[in-house]
C-alpha cells in the first residue's frame, strides 16, 4: 500500500490531537489537544491561534455553537467557550460528577441535537454512556455499557448514526428519528482485526461513505454505506485519531494525530505524531451542523 501525499499543515506536537472541524464561515480549521487542554484554530494564511482552557485537565471534544462560540466537553461537563474573549460558561453536565469518567467525542446531528459520549478513564470498565443533549440543556441516555465512546457521525440524510465502540473494536450503526432521543435498531457496521488498532473518530462524506480513524494502526478506512471497504489510506504515524473534510470546495481531508510512548515505536518518538495532516482527495465532504444552546449569546 503506497503512502498518500500527506501534507503537514502544522506541527503543534499535540499529545492527543482530536476533533478536527472545518468552519465554513471563517474558512478555518479548528482542532484540540485532548490533554492540552487546548483549542487550536488555523485561519487562511497559516497562523495558528491556541487557547489553553482553564480549570480543566482535558478537552474531550467540541462542536460549533451559535454566537461564534464552541461547546466544549471538559471535566465539569459541557461549557460554552468564546474564542473572542476566552470566557467559559457552564451549560450542562450529563455525567453529574461520576468519578473517573471523562467526556470524549461529540457531534451535532442534522436536526441540531448534540450527541456526546463518556469513557472510563482507565479505558477498561464499561462505564461510558452515550448521551443526546437538547438546546435547553436537557439530556437523555441514548446507549450505555462502553469503556470508551468515540465517533460519532451521521449519514447525509440524518437517519443513521455511526458510533465507535473503541475497546469493543467495532463500529456500530443505529437508526435515529428527529425529535426522538432513543437510538433504534443497533447493529454492527464493522469490526476491527488484531492488526487494525481501535476505531476512533468518524466522519461521513457527501457520497454517504463512512471514514474511520484507526488509533494505533496508522491508517484510515473508507466504508461504503453497506459496510464494504472502499479504500484504505496509510498515515505516517500510528496515533491517528479523527478526520474531517474542509477547504473552499470541501475536498481536503484533515487528520489529527498524537504521540504516545505506549503506541509509537522508539524511532517514532521525534517523528510527525502530533501534527495536523491534510490530503487533497477529490471527494466532497459535508459541513458539520452547529449547536444552538438556548442561553444568552
Structure description:
By secondary structure, this protein is mostly beta strands. The protein has one domain (7-280): TolB, C-terminal domain (Neuraminidase), CATH 2.120.10.30. The protein has strands spanning 7-11, 17-23, 28-33, 38-42, 48-52, 59-65, 69-74, 77-82, 87-92, 101-108, 114-120, 128-133, 139-146, 149-154, 160-165, 170-177, 180-191, 198-204, 210-215, 219-223, 229-234, 240-246, 252-257, 275-280. A hairpin with a 3-residue loop joins strand 19 and strand 20. The mean pLDDT is 94.
Topology:
Blueprint: E1 7-11, E2 17-23, E3 28-33, E4 38-42, E5 48-52, E6 59-65, E7 69-74, E8 77-82, E9 87-92, E10 101-108, E11 114-120, E12 128-133, E13 139-146, E14 149-154, E15 160-165, E16 170-177, E17 180-191, E18 198-204, E19 210-215, E20 219-223, E21 229-234, E22 240-246, E23 252-257, E24 275-280
Antiparallel strand pairs: 1-24, 2-3, 3-4, 4-5, 6-7, 7-8, 8-9, 10-11, 11-12, 12-13, 14-15, 15-16, 16-17, 18-19, 19-20, 20-21, 22-23, 23-24
